[in-house]
Amino acid sequence: QVQLVESGGGLVQPGGSLRLSCETSGRIFSVNAMDWYRQAPGKQRELVAGITSGGKTNYADSVKGRFTISRDNAKNTVYLQMNSLKPEDTAVYYCKADLIPGYTGSAFSHDYWGQGTQVTVSS
């Protein structure tokens, strides 16, 4: 079974930093794009940052200049470095990977989601 395991969430003061990690595991042929989403209470889920297999990144306007997404292709792991955190960054953060499961690469790619990790920015 393909799994995405997230870590790094927690409670942090405004202006602080957190680094989220999302590691894929299981029978995976290749990992294409990897993204971070977040959903705050009463809000829609939104794309925070994304990175392609070639390293091209994109960010939501609300996090530009503060968050950095990166990936380690050897480990099939994506990271989200979050600096200068604000209370409005409080949300459950979800990792999503577009990947081809299995060993042969004959299957179509599919989106897989992590379980989510809580990030709370508060004094």
* Helical content class: under 10%
The backbone outline, from C-alpha atoms, is: elongated
**Biggest β-sheet, characterized?**
7 strands, mixed
What is the CA-atom radius of gyration, in angstroms?
14 Å
Overall description:
It is elongated and about 50 Å long. The chain has 123 residues and is mainly β. Strands 2, 4, 5, 6, 9, 10 and 11 form a seven-stranded mixed sheet that branches. Strands 1-3-8-7 form a four-stranded antiparallel sheet, with no helix packed on it. The model has no long low-confidence stretch (mean pLDDT 96). It has strands at residues 3-7, 10-12, 18-25, 28-39, 46-51, 57-59, 67-72, 77-82, 91-101, 110-113, 117-121.
Keywords summarizing the entry:
123 residues; mainly beta
Structure in a nutshell:
Helices cover 0% and strands 56% of the residues. By secondary structure, the chain is mostly beta strands.
Detail the topology: elements first, then pairings.
Elements: E1 3-7, E2 10-12, E3 18-25, E4 28-39, E5 46-51, E6 57-59, E7 67-72, E8 77-82, E9 91-101, E10 110-113, E11 117-121
Parallel strand pairs: 2-11
Antiparallel strand pairs: 1-3, 3-8, 4-5, 4-9, 5-6, 7-8, 9-10, 9-11
